[in-house]
Structures are given as structure tokens and as C-alpha cells.
């Protein structure tokens, strides 16, 4: 089968297009899926650069998010059957075989039947970003009607879903984004969009209940100032300065996302009910995966970058 692989940790520009890689074998708790589409995430780029390299055997197939059709079911899997259209996560770091390939072995615990009436490309765009947004907003923050939340990176993969999910909860949503993306993020439902290049969110907002930071850098610590006492900040990147958070009397969480079936079911419901719409910026053919990574790195995509593997 075709697989997009790394055989060194020199970065995504050294990706290999391997036409003769053997199909993976599903373990008892896995399914084998014929992949129709796969989405890029920043972590795929990091893996190609050596992130957690001690856990990776080369050559390794990149990719975590996918959608496709089940062709084999492991002996201990009872919730799925051959022919099911599924989506989920099967990154090599969680025991999957990597999704930038024609077939993937995926843990049954990290997949679900994909939403109806959306394309495979749209379904592939959802798992990690959607699970991250849900874990933060419905898990850690437990956002409620009438509360105020600031979402950093409102036009990004996670942010574009987080803005929509926060509106489902009836919150007032402020989001940061580039000037060119202001209208885009407003159309996702944000009540206020702040240009992260020319405006200072920390001087514009106060008494917020929650911050969801998908960008990090110095935005995390600056964000503590906009929270009211007892508020909460969730950061997608590493630990927040707990001592500083204590000083502001707010809860600070550095999130590690898990893409479990339960979260994917919730995403399926939100998409099927029309409350959340997948955000696909651009779809590339599998032979142009390096171009897809270039676009993720420098194209400032709105939402997700997707690779089409089968029509
Ligand atoms: N911990 C975990 O388990 C986990 C899981 C998933 C993702 N992550 C991490 O979470 C982060 C977000 O992921 P993603 O897929 O949403 O990435 P993404 O699609 O690249 O989104 C990041 C967004 O941040 C925006 N941004 C850039 N500079 C900013 C600033 N100064 N202030 C506010 N926003 C700014 C970007 O806008 P422009 O396009 O204008 O630059 C972009 O829209 C990544 O670093 C990823 O590695 C962590």
C-alpha cells in the first residue's frame, strides 16, 4: 500500500512516498480501516522533527486524524463491523499505525461512526481538534449559559470548532485571530474578535470566566489578567505557570487531549444536529503531502488542512 513516511527526523520536507509498505495487521482491540481522508495536525510536523523520537521505530507512517471504511475487525472488538464509515485518531504514538496511508490499524477505543451527510474530508478534519475543544470546554471548563470565554486562535483547527462549541453553551465568546480572519471567526459565532497583531486583548477584556488558549507563548500568562477570581484557563501547550495562576486566584490547566470514542460520539451529535460545522481550509492529494505541510506551516489556514487518499 502507499504510505507517507519518515525515515529520519529531518522534518516534513524529507517525507517519503512509499508505494510498497505492507498493510498493517489490526491487534485484537483494533480495526483495519481503508482510509479515505486524513487531516494534518501540528504534532505530525513535530514528530517529523524528532518529537518523542525514542518512542518511534523508523520508517514510521505519519498522521493521526482519519476517516474511512472498516475492512477488518479485531477479535475483541464488538462495537464496530466491516463496512462501518468511521473517523478517529490512529497516530503511532497511541498505538495506531499512522493515517497518511491507504490502510490504518486503529484502536477501537479511539474511533466512532462518522457524522451523516458530511464528506470524508470533513469527517477527517474533526477528531483531534474537536476532541481538544470538547475536553476543554465541556470537560475542564464546564462552560455555562451567560458565561464569558476568551478563545485564543479562533481561526485555527481547534479554535474554529471551540468558538462554535462555546456558542452551543450560550456563552459570550471573544476570540483572537489575525485581522484577515475577523469576519471568518465572527461568522463562526464569536461575539467579539480581537486582532492579535494590532490589539491588546489583555487591556480590552476583564472579569472573564474562562480562557481557552490554543496558541500559548506569552498569551497564556497575559490571559490570567482577563479572568475573574475563581476563573479557569486551559492551555493546549504545556504547563501554565501555577504560581502566577495562584496569585490571580484562578485554576490553570495544561491539557493533554485524549480522543476517546465518547468524545467522538458527542462530536457526531453536534455535527448531525447542525450546531457545529467542520472547517476544512484546503484538501491536497496524497502525493502532495509536503505541499499540505507547507500550507499548514505558512498558509495561515482557516480550520484544517486535509489529505485525500481515496475518492
Ligand atoms: N496538548 C495536546 O494534547 C494537544 C492536542 C492538539 C493540539 N495541540 C496543540 O495546540 C495548538 C493548536 O492546535 P491547532 O491544530 O488548532 O493549530 P493551528 O490550526 O495552527 O491554530 C493555531 C492558531 O493560532 C493562531 N495564532 C497565531 N499567533 C497567535 C497569537 N499571537 N495570538 C492568538 N492566536 C494566534 C494562528 O493564526 P494564524 O493562522 O494567523 O497564524 C492559528 O489560527 C498547537 O500548538 C498544537 O500542537 C496540543
Which keywords apply here?
single chain; 311 residues; alpha/beta; Quinone Oxidoreductase, Chain A, domain 1; Rossmann fold; 2 domains; seven-stranded mixed sheet; six-stranded parallel sheet; 10 helices; 16 strands; globular; binds NADP nicotinamide-adenine-dinucleotide phosphate
How do you describe this structure in short?
The model has no long low-confidence stretch (mean pLDDT 97).
Secondary-structure map with pairings?
Layout: E1 3-6, E2 16-18, E3 30-39, H1 42-48, E4 60-61, E5 65-73, E6 85-89, E7 103-107, E8 111-113, H2 120-124, H3 127-140, E9 148-152, H4 157-168, E10 172-177, H5 182-187, E11 192-195, H6 201-204, E12 208-213, H7 219-223, E13 227-235, H8 242-248, E14 251-254, H9 261-272, E15 280-285, H10 289-298, E16 304-308
Parallel strand pairs: 9-10, 9-12, 10-11, 12-13, 13-14, 15-16
Antiparallel strand pairs: 1-2, 1-4, 3-5, 3-7, 3-16, 5-6, 6-8
The chain binds NADP nicotinamide-adenine-dinucleotide phosphate (NAP).
Amino acid at each position: 500500500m502507499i504510505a507517507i513516511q519518515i525515515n529520519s527526523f529531518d522534518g516534513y520536507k524529507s517525507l517519503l512516498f512509499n508505494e510498497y509498505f505492507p498493510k498493517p495487521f489490526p491487534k485484537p482491540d483494533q480495526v483495519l480501516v481503508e482510509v479515505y481522508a486524513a487531516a494534518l495536525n501540528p504534532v505530525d510536523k513535530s514528530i517529523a522533527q524528532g518529537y518523542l523520537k525514542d518512542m518511534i521505530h523508523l520508517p514510521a507512517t505519519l498522521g493521526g486524524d482519519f476517516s474511512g471504511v472498516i475492512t477488518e475487525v479485531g477479535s475483541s472488538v464488538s462495537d464496530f463491523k466491516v463496512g462501518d464509515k468511521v473517523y478517529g485518531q490512529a497516530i503511532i504514538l497511541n498505538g495506531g499505525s499512522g493515517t497518511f496511508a491507504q490502510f490504518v490499524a486503529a484502536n477501537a477505543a479511539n474511533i466512532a461512526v462518522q457524522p451523516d451527510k458530511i464528506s470524508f474530508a470533513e469527517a477527517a478534519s474533526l477528531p483531534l481538534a474537536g476532541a481538544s475543544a470538547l475536553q476543554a470546554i465541556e470537560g475542564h471548563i464546564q462552560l455555562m449559559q451567560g458565561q464569558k470565554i476568551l478563545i485564543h486562535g479562533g481561526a485555527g483547527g481547534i479554535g474554529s470548532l471551540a468558538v462554535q462549541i462555546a456558542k452551543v453553551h450560550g456563552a459570550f465568546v471573544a476570540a483572537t485571530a489575525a485581522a484577515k480572519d475577523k469576519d471568518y471567526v465572527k461568522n463562526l459565532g464569536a461575539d467579539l474578535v480581537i486582532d492579535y497583531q494590532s490589539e491588546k486583548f489583555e487591556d480590552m477584556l476583564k472579569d472573564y470566566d474562562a480562557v481557552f488558549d490554543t496558541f500559548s507563548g506569552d498569551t497564556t500568562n497575559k490571559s490570567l489578567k482577563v479572568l475573574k477570581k475563581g476563573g479557569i484557563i486551559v492551555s493546549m501547550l504545556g504547563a501554565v505557570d501555577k504560581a502566577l495562576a495562584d496569585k490571580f486566584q484562578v485554576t490553570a490547566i495544561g491539557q493533554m487531549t485524549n480522543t476517546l470514542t465518547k468524545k467522538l460520539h458527542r462530536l457526531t451529535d453536534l455535527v448531525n444536529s447542525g450546531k457545529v460545522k467542520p472547517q476544512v481550509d484546503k484538501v491536497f492529494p496524497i502525493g502532495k503531502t509536503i505541499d499540505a505541510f507547507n500550507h499548514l506551516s505558512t498558509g495561515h489556514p482557516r480550520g484544517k488542512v486535509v489529505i485525500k487518499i481515496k475518492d
